[in-house]
Amino acid sequence: MIRAVALFAAVLAVPAQDDTPNPFRPFDREAFVKAIQAAGATDAQVQRFHAQAAEESAGAAAEELLRAVFPKYAAALAELEGADPRGVLSLAALIAESQQPHVRAHARYWLGRAFLDVDDPEGAVEVFTEYLRHDRNVSPFDGEVVFFYGSALARVPEREAAAGVLREFVQLFPDAPERYRASAAQLIAELESKINPLHEIADTMGGVERRIRKTDTGEETQRRQEDVIAKLQKIIEQVEEMEKQSSGGGGGNSPNSPRQDSNLTPGATEVGKLNRARDVTDRWGMLKDRERKAIEGEAEAKLSGRHRKLVEDYYRRLSRGAGR
Predict the structure, then answer these.
(1) Whole-prediction pTM value?
(2) Domain count, the chain
(3) Residue 153 · residue 172 · CB < 8 Å
(4) Residue 188 forms part of a structural domain
(5) What Cα–Cα distance (Å) separates residue 100 from each residue in 12, 36, 297?
(6) End-to-end CA distance of the chain
(7) Is the same domain home to 59 and 136?
(8) Residues 44 and 77: beta-carbon distance below 8 Å
């Protein structure tokens, strides 16, 4: 495992040193407005942006302005919000084709969250990694991306890396919404606490199961399977040794008894969920076979490389959830 801070620094492409300058800058509203005006924003839309940023948040204002100026982006978000299975395809295609950095950044943010919403933390990690490498400092969502990146790592699970990223989030974004900062603090405490080996094995097995469902049976998946088997064998040997020593003796709490509070609290890793996983799965299940094949064919035609595989995995996950 790469040291957590070094891993985060590697994602950001900056040296892993204590005196490294903050790689994130405050959201530059004026630069954002200037760029969107160049793309066709009207004076009325800009005035609305400034008013909304003052009354609500820069994130909400930027979202509304982007949707008003870029129809494809607005359509993709409408699909996502309406639990339309095409939503992730439209977002991924927009990332591939758009030359507008603000559109790409926001599209990656929502795509990563869509993957998290259907329990695909590995896919979310990939998308958020792309954002942090290519899109930071153009969107008001930098802090939220770091939070969700750490949350996704916790669900993979990559505990050390997740705790490191979340510590960086707390330090780098003191003005982030309190719900994210509180959830980050809770997750850090749980990630750094001593976890019962059985729970750690269960987490690892969950990650292996997701990889196998994606038809990923490569070296990394096999290594994780072997690690699970080795840890289980060690626990079995410890239990057998304890039984020999106790000679069938009485009660008491076994040191290997699972702790009821040792799992990561679901709420901490699910803050900000879009909560449309069931809806989009149902919508996918209601489509005719030819409609699903048409969407899958569109993904194959419009996307390439990792994005195509991520979207194909997403539709396979929907098919399993719909019982197809």
Answers:
(1) 0.77
(2) 3
(3) no
(4) yes
(5) 21, 9, 26
(6) 37
(7) yes
(8) no
